[in-house]
Amino acid sequence: MVFNKMYLGLLGAVSTSLQAAERPNIVIIYTDDMGIGDLSCYNSGWVMTPNIDRLAANGLKFNHYYTASPVSSPSRVSLTTGMFPTEWGVNTFLHDRKGNANCEQLDYLDTSAPSMARTLKEVGYSTAHIGKWHMGGGRDVDDAPQIPRYGFDEYVSTYESPDPDKLITASNWIWSKQDSIKRWERTGYFVDKALDFLSRHKGTPCFVNLWPDDMHDPWIPQTKFFDNKKSWTSKPNFVAVLQEYDRQIGRFIAGLEKLGMLENTLIIFTSDNGALPTFEQVRTNGLRGSKVSLYEGGVRMPFIISWPKKIKGGEIENESVLSSVDLYPSLCAITGAKMPKGFNYSGEDMSKALLGVKELRRHKDLMWDFGRNRFFGRPHQLHHQSPHLAIRRGDYKLLINSDRSRLELYDVKKDPNETTNIADKYPELCKQLSDKVINWYFTKRKVRQ
């Protein structure tokens, strides 16, 4: 990647001395179940996303961004807290109490955990969560903390939350034919809510979680598909829903511009976890794995950051390795906010990479835990079933079970599709990495008692 020298002093200008009005608005668009191959700015053209592509053309695109989990709830916990989610007792998607107990996890994110929204409020941000929550509440979990307890001034949320919006939850389920806002209208509804919040808080910096529940199936692009269940996970339906999703993201960006807020709004666009179904890996750009897998297709995500006032557009970052746990410390560095003390954060400040100042080599290893027992619902295809622990250091990624079975090592820079297990060639590195991730798993995980 080529960096412009005019940006080298950027971080020095972004400090705790910034007045609230000078800080950027921050919007995190956290797409649901979007694979890295779902965007035409990443893929070879099998599907087109012109509006999201324009966001990339006007910003910075990363090729090595990882989510901290291949499923929804723990991924969202990692972004919120800056910590690996298994350390907060969330290791798969949150569902009913029995299901959570079977997966050895808690029923919701502890409110004592650090929270990005809470921290940004302390330096003058107005905060809103709009869209999917999935960090506690729904089904029979009726004691989950309300969303404001995590630092949000306002919220609109889906079924998987403690207080879902009635317009999108007419029944006791994630969606229904009776919802006032239909399945294919939901992203547009969330965009309207986000723009309304931003318009009412002009003059003060805003932090908005814009977390749609597209591109999660079922894919129902219009009324006639409600009763055609065979089409709900079909490629034609997927493409139709994606095209509408892309249109709504374009409408959101146009809305920011109309409000005069686009120039000083930092937008992050990414996904919570990988795609499923993958349509024979086209949605993963050929990467092995899928949602619910620790192979690259389950955890390597698209990642675009745009801030017209500060970030040079049209750049591609192919060296820095980022993670969802890095966003909290990085955004604190950009805004001058102070992270709460007393926590051993998994992420690190990657703000210089995010702002296009310089490529960074990370100091902390990335670690994952997913699928430790039969209740996790992993795919039946052996190709997608990964060991339940993984660790990446530099270009090497090791996967292993906590009983030390299924040792796999890949050079993901040379072999991004994880086709050649090179564990036999590097016994000392395998010992170092496997010892570290297994020790982390047994000493740091929080398990439901």
Report what the structure shows.
The model is unreliable at 1-17 (pLDDT under 50). A hairpin with a 2-residue loop joins β11 and β12. The strands form two sheets. Strands 1, 2, 3, 4, 5, 6, 7, 8 and 9 form a nine-stranded mixed beta sheet that branches. The protein is built from eleven helices and 13 strands. α2 packs across α7 (235-258) and α6 runs parallel beside α7. The protein is α/β, with parallel strands linked by helices and 449 residues long. The protein has helices at 10-13, 50-57, 72-81, 97-102, 116-121, 186-200, 235-258, 296-299, 327-335, 351-354, 427-444; strands at 25-31, 60-66, 126-131, 154-157, 206-211, 265-271, 300-306, 315-317, 322-323, 366-369, 389-393, 396-400, 408-411.
Provide the descriptors you would attach to this structure in a database record.
single chain; 449 residues; alpha/beta; four-stranded antiparallel beta sheet; 11 helices; 13 strands
